[in-house]
Amino acid sequence: xxxxxxxxxxxxxxxxxxxxxxxxxxxxxxxxxxxxxxxxxxxxxxxxxxxxxxxxxxxxxxxxxxxxxxxxxxxxxxxxxxxxxxxxxxxxxxxxxxxxxxxxxxxxxxxxxxxxxxxxxxxxxxxxxxxxxxxxxxxxxxxxxxxxxxxxxxxxxxxxxxxxxxxxxxxxxxxxxxxxxxxxxxxxxxxxxxxxxxxxxxxxxxxxxxxxxxxxxxxxxxxxxxxxxxxxxxxxxxxxxxxxxxxxxxxxxxxxxxxxx
Length: 261
Known about the structure:
2 domains
C-alpha cells in the first residue's frame, strides 16, 4: 500500500489519514488512488463508519500544483480530465457509502481539501483550522463538489463571497454558519472524532445509511417524490433486525445491540 495514506482498523470502523505532511497532504495521483482503494477496502470489509483526517499541521491543501504546472508541460493541463478521473469519483464514492463518514479537519483545508471535507457526512474541526476556497488565486472554480455544497450549506451570497475572495474561514465561524458540525479545541479534536466514529459504528447503521441517502436525495427530489422515498426507506428499516432490537431494548429498558442489518 502507498505510504501517502495511513489506515487503522479499529474493529467496526476505519480511520484513514492523508499522509503527505511535508506538502500539507496535497493530492497526487498516487494519493488519490491509494485513498480510494482504502475507502473501498473499508466498505467491502464491513466497516460501519469511517474517519478521515490528515497528518501533521494541515488536513489537505488540495491539488499538488507541482503535478499540474503548465511550465513543465508541452501544453495546458486538462483539468477537466483531472476532475473526472480523480476528484469526482472520490466525492461520489464518499457520498455513496451507506454508513457515516466523519472528517476531522486538524489544520488548514484549502481548495479541493476543503471540499473533500464537505463531501463527508459530519465535519469536526480544530479551532485553529481554516477552510479556504483558494481556487480563485489560480484562476479556477471550486471543484470537488464545492460549487454544489457551498450554496446548499451557506446560501448563494456566502458561497460566492468565499469563492471570489478566497478569504480563510475560521473553524468557529464555519460552525456558526452551518458549514461544519463542530469546532473543537485542538487537543480535543481527535479524541472526540474517534469517540464519535466508535459510537456511530455500533449504532443502527442500516438506518443511519438510509438517513444519509434520504437527506442527500432531498437536494433534487420534489416533496411528493421524497415522501415516497421516505415510505420505501421506512419499510426497509421496519423490516430490519435493528428496528426489532431497538424496540425490544427500549421496552426492556436495556442498551441496544445493533448489527447494522
